């Protein structure tokens, strides 16, 4: 346990005795999950499943799935992906040993999955047994001018529910396998990305619940789980009262929420935000330290509206801001339950959470 040694370890023990906020980590590989636990993470707050799909051994099947012309074609590719996805979750549940694990269903901007090189198209063509020109036509159909505001997040799940069905199956099969092997059942928190409306969450929750029931019947075992949502669009924050009727938890995706509230691209922003900070327009880079006046207002309002509907709703934050001390102080102030940070920022988050708790006591 690298950070538990010496004075720093003593400080961490002290901080843990003081803080109220739980600290989780953003992790999708077993290695990251292990590092996170060594640094004191109390669960995974965000497992980005699209990162698993980029794995070199899988990407051809993923592209086959995305480029398939119909549901039957997508299901053929998804069957290839299911065993590996199940193995991903088994490993994560094992490392996290009963701590909460929030698994976010697929949320890629679609263009990241599309093949570009001739050789990539050729590989998919041979895997799918489809003519290369058919694949190229399909890729052209799927092209988007602004993929970050396009067919991503739960919009993919709405148009291709079989993708979320496969992932949910993998999650529940993995959880049951780990429960049987270790005797302690993981409690997966299944998270739906980029939700803007109650209906989207309702439709996606139905897909997850149906997959859960199918797996439970098949395995003759059940496990507890939660279905909740990211709040990362202003509309979701505004409609949080309604959305909380369906979702058992909210996780604030402050990267996208900052992007969509400020209307500033998270990928290109750095170029002019430096000038903006120099001119005093924003106190700090709002993608690094939460824009408390603006984005913070939306978060506070969504938390209040969510709680008004569902008093025990679980509230966390999983954008980059989850590891930033000033943002963590704000999370403490509005009473979130946890922050989730990248594994190496977990110790900083534990300390910042303790400082925030002390400040709150006055
Ligand atoms: C976010 O938008 O804040 C988030 C955590 O999701 P991602 O960074 O994967 O879009
Ligand atoms: Mg996001």
TrEMBL record:
Keywords, alphabetical: ATP-binding, Kinase, Magnesium, Metal-binding, Nucleotide-binding, Pyruvate, Transferase
UniProt superkingdom: Bacteria
Keyword hit for ATP-binding: yes
Residue ranges the record marks as coiled coil: none
Domain PEP-utilising enzyme C-terminal: 5-356
GO molecular function, one term: pyruvate, phosphate dikinase activity
Family named by the database record: Belongs to the PEP-utilizing enzyme family.
Described purpose of this protein according to its UniProt entry: Catalyzes the reversible phosphorylation of pyruvate and phosphate.
Protein name: Pyruvate, phosphate dikinase
Species this protein is from: Sphingomonas oligophenolica
Covered residues, full protein: 527 to 888 of 888
């Amino acid at each position: 346990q690298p950070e538990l040694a010496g004075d720093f370890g003593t400080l961490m023990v002290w901080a843990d005795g003081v803080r109220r906020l739980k600290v989780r980590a953003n992790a999708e590989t077993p290695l990251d999950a292990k590092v996170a636990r060594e640094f004191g993470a109390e669960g995974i707050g965000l497992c980005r499943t699209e990162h698993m799909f980029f794995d070199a051994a899988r990407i051809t099947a993923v592209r086959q799935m995305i480029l398939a012309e119909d549901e039957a074609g997508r299901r053929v590719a998804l069957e290839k992906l299911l065993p590996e996805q199940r193995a991903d979750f088994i490993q994560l549940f094992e490392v996290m040993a009963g701590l909460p694990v929030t698994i976010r269903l697929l949320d890629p901007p679609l263009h990241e999955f599309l093949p570009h090189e001739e050789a990539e198209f050729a590989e998919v063509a041979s895997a799918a047994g489809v003519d290369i020109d058919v694949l190229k036509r399909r890729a052209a159909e799927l092209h988007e001018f602004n993929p970050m505001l396009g067919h991503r997040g739960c919009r993919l799940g709405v148009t291709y529910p079989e993708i979320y069905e496969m992932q949910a199956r993998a999650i529940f099969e993995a959880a049951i396998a780990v429960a049987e092997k270790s005797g302690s059942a993981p409690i997966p928190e299944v998270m739906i990305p980029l939700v803007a409306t109650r209906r989207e969450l309702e439709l996606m929750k139905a897909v997850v619940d149906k997959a859960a029931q199918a797996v439970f019947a098949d395995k003759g075992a059940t496990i507890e789980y939660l279905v909740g949502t990211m709040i990362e669009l202003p509309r979701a924050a505004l409609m949080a009262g309604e959305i909380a009727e369906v979702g058992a938890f909210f996780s604030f995706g402050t990267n996208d929420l900052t992007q969509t509230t400020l209307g500033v691209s998270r990928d290109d922003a750095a170029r002019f935000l430096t000038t903006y900070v120099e001119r005093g327009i924003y106190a700090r880079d709002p993608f690094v330290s939460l824009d408390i006046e603006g984005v913070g207002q939306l978060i506070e309002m969504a938390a209040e509206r969510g709680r008004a509907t569902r008093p025990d709703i679980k509230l966390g934050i999983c954008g980059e801001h989850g590891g930033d001390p000033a943002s963590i102080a704000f999370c403490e102030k509005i009473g979130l339950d946890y922050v989730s940070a990248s594994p190496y920022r977990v110790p900083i988050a534990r300390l910042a959470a303790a400082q925030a708790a002390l400040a709150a006591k006055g």
